[in-house]
Design goal:
The complex is a heterodimer. Chain A has a domain of 168 residues: MetI-like (MetI-like fold), CATH 1.10.3720.10. The radius of gyration of chain A is 23 Å and the shape is globular. In chain A, helix 4 packs antiparallel against helix 12. In chain A, 77% of the residues lie in helices and 0% in strands. By secondary structure, chain A is mainly α. Chain A starts with a helix and ends with a helix. In chain B, helix 2 packs parallel to helix 4. The longest helix of chain B has 18 residues. The radius of gyration of chain B is 25 Å and the shape is elongated. The chains are: A mainly alpha, B alpha+beta. Chains A and B meet through helix 9 and helix 10 of A and strand 6 and helix 2 of B. The complex binds adenosine-5'-diphosphate and magnesium ion. The site of adenosine-5'-diphosphate has 10 residues of chain B, from helix 1.
Chain lengths: 265, 389
């Protein structure tokens, strides 16, 4: 009983981790399965087919690439626009500033079904052909909100004396931005971009409304789920998960190394 | 850039009718001072009196409402901050957190297009004794070290004027004493004009060769520390810079070089040369350490011609170097007296009837219109601010 009380925190922690990782390990395990029938649900026998033949099932890889492309392009544009909007909102006083501040939250607050269907109605009304462009436009719309909110918070948290110090030290307005303001806001921008990309990559609802005949990765999986998801999807999902994990670990290690180097110097 | 070809010769800094208003409130009110080239100049005043605003206008971070700023005979009032040959050590240091110590110090040189900064930066880091920490980030340094980086980062640009806004405010007492000596050493070494803002009168007196006492946006008095201390011209200065006993009286007559004053029925004498009174109302002032306490029975021992007051001791505190007495005069005012502990033996005790006396040459006269309590609260506030850190 005493033992239980003393280790309660660790036990709960481990249980939560197990809870978080079971689905992921199931996904990964089934990528090495050779399904008996149409559905890759129960374990049959070990096989590397899905991994050696990643693009073996038609549509898997092309939809994956489509989602990557849309994610990258939307993130790039949204980050650029969102950063500029954040600077304008924080640094300048103009008419409609507080309205903009409020409206920028709307895409985050609106239910995705509502946003997806409204956009569809708009595109149809304008006779705008559905496809990669409409999906990208929709994604840019909601990523911008996240970028603006994150970068704005970062900018507001910036000590104004740092920029004054730069001006005092012979930095022109342009140099102040380049050597002080931007580097200090950059982590916020990068964070917002990463978040924006992952939101775009796994968005289903809004994309489904506005994709027309375009098939993104989530849309492909949705379709495949009716007929049985091929193990290749599990393999790709594992790949994405591992990539994310490697990025996180790498950044941790770099930071740890830096700290070590500092302490020993 | 024209500033690049700047000579090493330092020049006076002139503030002429400098005024800054925030709405209706004048934070700096018609300030006119000349700060001599190469001097260690202290701008002393209580919190909120306009010191920071004055510095920011000199640095170019704040536009004056009116007035002008000149360095030598060059008018810099309209120059932007990054065009002025002036650098600042900020109150909170404002070191760039994303750059290491070396790059922080090199910042000004790089922005002015200096190519080879290594030798200069290392030399500057050695001057402030931080050579070994060049590759650390600011957050990995102690308060005292950050402070020295801030000084190095500003000084490396060889500014005509270095502005320091309460640079020691965030340090604990011991470190502050140490940095006072350090800053003084650096100033002597480089010979740049230092304008040092502080609310700590002791700091101003120990460091500066010229002090300007500031109150509510104006300069009350300016001069060498000893000169201001010995001969304050206003009640604010008398109370804010050290302590004073101020007694309200009226001019009763005058001899060759002394003014005869009557206050509460007691006669005092004030040297004409030491009085800034203009009418018949006058305030008699004396510093506590200039006074001597005697037992009332020894009244005959008071030297001829000295000013003297009978009273009763209400408090005695022994501080080692000196003993501090509070003596209540007949009219109820409490006088403060510091006696050096020269003699071992009897001291006066609470309740003793005593006579307090001092030489007329140590007396100063203030205009009778002055409020004898001006600056008392401000001094207490400044002391609290110091103690609170
Ligand atoms: N940007 C500002 N807007 C409005 N009032 C200000 C501003 N900056 C300073 N003040 C006011 O001006 C006065 C002087 O401030 P400051 O120069 O910072 O004083 P100090 O540095 O002597 O403590 C204060 O009353 C302060 O509230
Ligand atoms: Mg201040």
């Amino acid at each position: 009983m005493r033992w239980l009380r003393r280790n309660a925190v660790s036990i709960v922690g481990i249980l939560v981790l197990v809870y978080l990782f079971i689905p992921i390990s199931v996904v990964t395990a089934l990528s090495f399965n050779k399904p008996a029938g149409k559905f890759n649900i129960s374990w049959n026998s070990f096989s590397l087919d899905a991994w050696t033949n990643l693009c073996g099932v038609p549509g898997v890889c092309s939809s994956f690439v489509t989602s990557l492309e849309i994610g990258l392009v939307s993130t790039l544009i949204a980050t650029l626009l969102g950063t500029m909007i954040a600077f304008a909102l924080v640094r300048y006083r103009f008419r409609g500033r507080s309205t903009t501040n409020l409206l920028i939250f709307l895409p985050m607050a609106t239910p995705e079904v509502v946003m997806g269907s409204s956009l569809l109605a708009l595109f149809l009304n304008m006779r705008f052909p559905l496809g990669p462009l409409t999906v990208a436009i929709a994604h840019i719309m909601f990523i911008i909100s996240f970028v603006v909110v994150t970068v704005k918070a970062r900018l507001q948290g910036l000590d104004p004396r740092l920029e004054e110090a730069a001006r005092d030290l012979y930095a022109s307005p342009r140099a102040t931005f380049r050597y002080v303001t931007f580097p200090l806001v950059l982590p916020g921008i990068i964070g917002a971009a990463l978040l924006g990309f992952s939101l775009s990559f796994d968005d289903f609802i809004i994309s489904y409304f506005n994709a027309g005949t375009l098939v993104t990765f989530p849309i492909y999986i949705w379709g495949a789920a009716q007929r049985g998801i091929p193990p290749q999807v599990n393999a790709l999902a594992t790949l994405v998960f591992v990539t994310a994990l490697v990025i996180v670990l790498a950044s941790q290690i770099v930071q740890y190394r830096k700290r070590k180097a500092m302490e020993s110097s | 850039m024209a500033e690049q070809s700047r000579t090493n010769q330092v020049e006076d800094l002139h503030l002429v009718n400098l005024t800054k208003r925030f709405g209706d409130m004048a934070a700096v009110d018609d300030l006119t001072i000349t700060i001599p080239a190469g001097s260690f100049f202290a701008l002393l005043g209580a919190s909120g009196c306009g010191k920071t605003t004055t510095l920011r206008m000199v640095a170019g971070l704040e536009d004056p409402t009116s007035g002008s700023i000149r360095i030598g005979d060059k008018d810099v009032t309209r120059l932007r901050a990054f065009q002025r040959p002036v650098n600042t050590v900020f109150q909170s240091y404002a070191l760039f957190p994303h750059l290491d110590i070396f790059e922080n110090v090199a910042f000004g040189l790089r922005r002015r297009g200096v190519k080879d900064v290594k030798a200069t930066v290392e030399q500057m880091l050695d001057l402030v004794e931080l050579g070994s920490l060049a590759r650390r980030k600011p957050t990995q340094l102690s308060g005292g070290q950050q402070q020295r980086v801030a000084v190095a980062r500003a000084l490396i640009n060889k500014p005509d004027v270095l502005l320091l806004d309460e640079p020691l405010g965030a340090l604990d007492l011991k470190l502050r004493r140490q940095m006072q000596i350090e800053l003084k050493r650096i100033q002597t070494e480089v010979g740049t004009t230092f304008v040092h803002v502080t609310h700590d009168q002791e700091e101003a007196m120990t460091m500066a060769d010229t002090i300007a006492v500031m109150n509510a946006g104006r300069i009350e008095q300016m001069g060498h520390p000893a000169e201001i201390y010995e001969l304050p011209k206003t009640a604010f200065v008398a109370n804010f810079l050290g302590q004073s006993n101020l007694i309200e009286g009226r001019v009763a007559g005058a001899s060759d070089d002394l003014i005869d004053v009557t206050a509460y029925g007691v006669a005092f004498r004030v040297p004409k040369s030491r009085s800034s009174a203009t009418g018949t109302a006058i305030i008699v002032g004396v510093r506590p350490e200039k006074m001597t306490v005697l037992d009332a029975l020894d009244a005959t021992k008071v030297p001829d011609g000295h000013n003297a007051i009978f009273g009763r001791v209400t408090d005695v505190s022994y501080t080692g170097v000196s003993t501090q007495y509070l003596v209540r005069a007949a009219w109820g005012q409490e006088l403060i007296v510091f006696e050096q502990n020269m003699i071992v033996g009897d001291r006066c005790e609470v309740g003793d009837d005593v006579i307090v006396h001092w030489a007329p040459s140590h007396t100063f006269g203030l205009d009778g219109d002055e409020n004898i309590n001006a600056g008392v609260d401000a001094a207490v506030l400044a002391l609290d601010a110091t103690a609170g850190q």
